[in-house]
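#onboarding

Welcome to the new folks! Below is a worked example of what a typical request in this channel looks like: someone posts a single protein sequence, and someone else replies with the predicted structure as tokens. Don't worry about understanding the tokens yet, we'll cover that in week two.

Example request:
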Amino acid sequence: MNHVIGIDIGGTKTAAGVVSTSGELLFTEEIPTLNRDGGRAILDATAALVERLRQRLGVAAGGVSAVGVGSAGVIDAEHGNVLAATDAIAGWAGTPLAQGLAQRTGLPVSTVNDVHAHALGEAWLGAGAAASSMLMVAFGTGVGGSFVLNGRPQLGHRFAAGHVGHFASPYAYADNQPLPCSCGRAGHVEAIASGPAIYSNYLRLGGDAAAIDTKGVFARAAAGDQAAITAVGVGAAAAGSAMGGLINILDPELVVVSGGLADAGDMWWKPMERAMRAELMDVTSSVSTVPATLGSTAAILGAAALVLDPLSTRKDTA
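Example response:
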């Protein structure tokens, strides 16, 4: 039986695994992403990772037939190029990802943005496996999402679909001024609902900088720190408000929520759900919202699904 390799290229680490045609994840490996060394160095390191996994699988097991990649950045899934990327990976924009990795490995390669890969994994084998349409929204260091319809992520005309953190939020204001967003604009969902944004809001509310990071804010909220409770509540409400609007627009059968904030428990989930339900129209009010189930393996499995079902990478034609 042939296998495929799924790869998840993030800003700090690159994870990969060997996946069977039935979706069994046999084993995984992880390396640091050479995020200051440019696209060529990342391709070289990723190709070496692929080779180690191939050797580990061995010919007797049927070998590896193809590679699927979910990568940070705006990815042209039709041609396999990185169209745009943040400075989290220096020199990544313009990299011929699919072609470069195919030349180095001798294997066919398909690519997509990493959040779409994450959603594909959940739609294939995770929380959305029984749904005909699934909206996945991830809240963590940033805010991203994907709408998967009949097993295919909707990529958009310019392959930029899924930037659900980058539309206006009424919560993203301080002193009547829109909060700056990582995209270079202001007043967006990510500017108030991401993990770093919750930490920044905690400091604006007079919180103690010794909290260090978002986890520290949640710990202080659990201990009764009022500034922390407010910061978490506002971030969760902003997340829910944004999700409610997306649900009204897209009308998914199911909503899957992923990311570090979704794993924070009722302190975040309950105010998020309340704000989301408050936005829903009567006709969409029955939608179910569930946490993601695959964790860090979702993007690897979703990337593998790209080459097990190549139609998943086609640009929207509707």
